[in-house]
Amino acid sequence: MKQNGKKKKKLNDTSRLFWIFILPWLIGFGAFTCFPMIYSFVMSFTNWNGLTNRDFIGISNFIQILTKDKTFLLSLKNTFFYIGVSVPLNTVVSIFLAMLLNKRLLGTNVFRGIFYLPTICTGVATYIAWTYLFNGTNGFINVILNGLGMESINFLGNRNTAMLSIIFMDMFCIGTAMTIVLAGLQDVPRDYYEAAQLDGASGIQRFWHITFPLISPVVFFNVLMAIIKGLQIFTQPYVMTGGGPAQSTYVYGLYLYNTAFSYGKFGYASALAWVLFIIMILLTLVILGTSKFWVFYREDVN
Amino acid sequence: MAKEKKRMKKNTENILTQILLIAMAALFLFPFVWMICTSLKTETGIADYKQLLPWPVSFRSFVKGWKGGKFLVYIWNTVRIAGLCVVGTVCSCSLVAFGFAKFQSKAKNVLFLVLLATMMVPQTVTLIPMYIMYSRFHWLNTIYPLVLPAFFGTSTFNIFLLRQFFAGLPNDLAEAAKIDGCSWFGIFSRIYLPNCKPALLVVVINQLVFCWNDYMAPLIYLGRPAKFTIALGLNAFKGEAGSTMDIGPIMAMAVVTILPLLVLYLCFQKYFVEGVAASGIKG
Asked: What 3-state class would DSSP assign to B31?
């Protein structure tokens, strides 16, 4: 090979090879990300319904969405409610489980395996199972509640509890977040705790002053990922409630899906998708902005 | 005396943790236990919904459910899609990851940022144009829309994961091979690729699980029942049979759906968990 003579140079004679190796991604990025994004952006300024109309209508779609569309507001509100409850809940549960596992007691690997299991098996099969578990008359959760002397709850059939039920179900899918936190916890030097213990710090103090600051970068990452994922929630309500009852689980993903694929309003749906994208970017920026108040990087000290 | 007290406290703390762990594990396993128990019940057993344990045990739900839908077709469709996606992802992502890990270019850092940024683009932004394009190509109800992107490095997370792994392998490996006259593709495929088998296994597992559980894309691209994946087929089966009181067959087919994942998980648990940690996301 012609590179033979340059072996002393570290692999820096290789710009051409770089482009050859990343070619699959370049093509994929162009065809499956860039092109559809431009296409969708252009489409969002049209009234295309998939069949006849294909006129440019300027920013009317966006004006309609932001000023007149009640379903947009409703679905956005539902989605924010989902995120608002589920992200903090999942964050707390993932930290809690990771801390339990980090004590390295008997059978830690088995427990970790069990906690990760629902994350892998999350799909239509488990959603259907949960639908039956939540059933208002003969669901097993109500059997347990009755056994404890409580009234039956029509979990998915009541507008006040339907979304909360989905949130509860999704609480079991924190395997990835938990594993990331656990890896973060294992990086916390043990002598930090010993020093704190000598100073007489309580368990809660140790958590807030040692553990949490040191795992805050991974928690931050988890929160960001959970928000991005939560904004796109679709399958759970689609399979379990269809958006009901009384549209209480009609999330943004469902609205978008129906607009595009049930009503064929591709232009309007594209505008909705771009609004979601912009909301996602804004939310990410807000979270990034808050990070300097609660995320702590060890390098900052040195 | 104080030391004794401290040890006592430590012990009670450990016992408490152990109890909490067991309680949480029971909670996390409960839906699966209920699913499996329900699938093994007789029809009268289902009616007695307050009873958790299936007694007498019966496999009639599996027989009835299996006959109720084209589950063999659904499974075959899913296996085909998942298999092709795995091949495509492993080939394309490892190439791209190697490019980003081992070669230099002025545009590299910018392009890598772009790659990471694509993880943030919501699926729905690209879904509608892609749907229109695929319908123009008459590719709806085929596996192309679900399989083709995998061959072009679209699973950015897997590229990221493999890049981290390649970057951790020393450059000396390539230097030695270059002296022996090995081409860059040979260096990649014969030296670096075999050395990152654990990471590749993580990618394979990630992709398999993703394809098995994916719902939105198959829902949009596959309309004909003969083309359904297992996730679509199961939901369709629930739509047909869901109104009956006998939920045994549906639960049996739900168990059939998650069984491959369970087996995969039991065999490769280490890689599932390591995949997350190996990406070096922390910090």
From this structure: helix
Establish if B7 belongs to a structural domain.
no
Please answer whether residues A243 and A254 qualify as being in contact, where contact means their C-beta atoms are separated by less than 8 angstroms: yes
Q: Tens of pLDDT along B89-139? A: 999 999 999 999 988 888 899 999 999 889 888 888 999 999 999 999 999
- Is B184 near chain A, with CB under 8 Å? yes
CATH of the domain at B201: 1.10.3720.10
Q: Which of B195, B185, B182 is nearest to A17 (CA)?
A: B185
A105 chain-B contacts, CB cut-off 8 A: 14, 17-18, 21
Given B96, B133, B215, which is nearest A22 (Cβ)? B96
Element (H, E) at A80: helix A70-102
| Chain B closest-CA separation from residue A61 CA (Å) | 15
Q: Give a yes or no: residue B78 inside a domain.
A: yes
Contact A115 B25 (CB under 8 A): yes
The 10s digit of each residue's pLDDT in A275-287 is: 999 999 999 999 9
pTM of the entire structure?
0.91
Q: Is B5 helix (H, G, I), strand (E, B) or coil?
A: helix
Are B103 and A18 a contacting pair at CB < 8 A?
Answer: yes
Domain count for chain B: 1
The answer to whether the CB atoms of A179 and B273 lie below 8 A apart is yes
Domains of chain A: 80-300 (1.10.3720.10)
Range of B267's domain?
Answer: 71-230+260-278
Of B25, B124, B277, the CB nearest to A111: B25
